[in-house]
Amino acid sequence: MTNVYSLDGILVFGLLFICTCAYFKKVPRLKTWLLSEKKGVWGVFYKAAVIGTRLHAAVAVTCVIMAFYVLFIK
Q: Subcellular localization, per the record (predicted)?
């Protein structure tokens, strides 16, 4: 089990956050509710969704690598 205070935990949390926000961008009701603000604290969700959609191949490869690391190496 990874904790948030280690580097692997922060990377896993960041990847899951980016993937979740990218999914929220595809759901119309959640997009208008959560991703309407582009600045401030709520803008973090929008920026993560943009990263997830524009770099979807890199995010997917990184998720597979982190899954392999967490399941088999750690």
A: Golgi apparatus membrane
